[in-house]
Amino acid sequence: MDIRTLPLGILETNCYILNNGTGVLIIDPSGEADVIEQEIDDIGLPVEAILLTHAHFDHIGALQETARTYAVDTWIGAEEEDWLADPDKNGSGKYADMGIEPDSADVEVKILEEGPMEVGSFKFEVFHTPGHSPGSMSFRFTDFVVSGDVLFSGGIGRTDLYMSNHIDLINSIREKLYVMDGDTDVYPGHGPATTIREEKATNPFVRG
């Protein structure tokens, strides 16, 4: 699997472009739709779906344009289905002093369910990992997991946001992510990739 990491938007949120040799998955089209489109044009394979780890504004900045361009299904956790169109819930309404415009996306979505999933030519497993947000989802492929803003290299997601919960976040990391094989690569919503083993051994917020 080829994984391309694109830090996009004002917060340099990681958008992931997954290429399995047959098709492409977009995870978190965070911003700069033209950059995403250029990357996919370079790959030269059809986009099969868009997956959202969660609906915070910095993960959906290019969602509406990207969904319109590729006319594929967008998948999201049920708890945040209505966040896409609500700046107060997706957080964009709170940062006008930073020059961030209230953001909303008018996109029809399909609802993710925890467990094995098949989309086009991709097979993976969906984990409900709430805490940073109530509908946060992580996606595990053969040897890596995309964790959104749940687990970072040396860090964890914020829990001072709308409907976030610190205890839920810690439980999600311990019960859903840290039980994965130590060699599993972790691709977070911000910053560099890490591994489950590294985080269990050194993460100052949640030790294994």
From TrEMBL:
Residue stretches making up the Metallo-beta-lactamase domain? 12-190
Please name the SUPFAM superfamilies in this protein's record: Metallo-hydrolase/oxidoreductase
The secretion signal range is: none
Concerning Gene3D superfamilies, the annotation shows: Ribonuclease Z/Hydroxyacylglutathione hydrolase-like (3.60.15.10)
In alphabetical order, the GO MF annotations are: hydrolase activity; metal ion binding
Question: Would the keyword Mitochondrion turn up in this protein's UniProt record?
Answer: no
Provide the protein name.
MBL fold metallo-hydrolase
- Protein species of origin: Candidatus Salinicoccus stercoripullorum
